[in-house]
Structures are given as structure tokens and as C-alpha cells.
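Suppose you are handed a protein chain with no further information: no name, no annotation, nothing but its sequence. What can you learn? This example shows the usual starting point.
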Amino acid sequence: MTAVAMVPLSIWFVFAMIGLPSFDYSDVVDFIAKPFNAVMLLLLTTTLLYHAMLGTQVVVEDYVRGAKKVVTLVLLRFAFIALGVSAVFSIFKISLGS
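A reasonable first move is to predict its three-dimensional structure. Written in C-alpha cells, the prediction is:
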């Protein structure tokens, strides 16, 4: 489901990036400050991180054994949650004004 959801989100993102006049800080902040772009970016970011978490979880479950497996899965989960929270916080902070 996450891969299917990322198809239209990725297409939107590519076209949105092509439409930017430049990749200057002010242009990117103005882009994220628009409500539609902020929501779409939140959807893309959370879907992408969840998809990556599921993928790395499968790799760990297949190739890591014993106690290392549990520790690695817990650390990966915390890492992806930390990345997600920081990404969502950053998008909110930009979109709602610094």
C-alpha cells in the first residue's frame, strides 16, 4: 500500500520541483508555506519513511539472528520515528511560520 501511495505523491513532487523557479532557501520556504504543498509534503514524507521502515524491518528479520535482531529492530523503529517527528515538525514550522 505504501508503494502504491508513493506513486502519485512522487509524481506530484517531481512536477512541483520542476515548477520551482530556483532551489534558493526563500523559494523552497515559500513553496512549503503553501497549505496544499505542506499537506502533500507531509503525506509524501510520512509514507516514504513508513515504507523505508517496513523495508529495513524485512531485511533485518531475514538476515539478523538472535538478540541482535531485537535490538536492531528497536533501534531502527526509534530512528525512523525520530526522523518522522523531525520532518513533520520542520514542515509544520515552515508552513505555519517561523
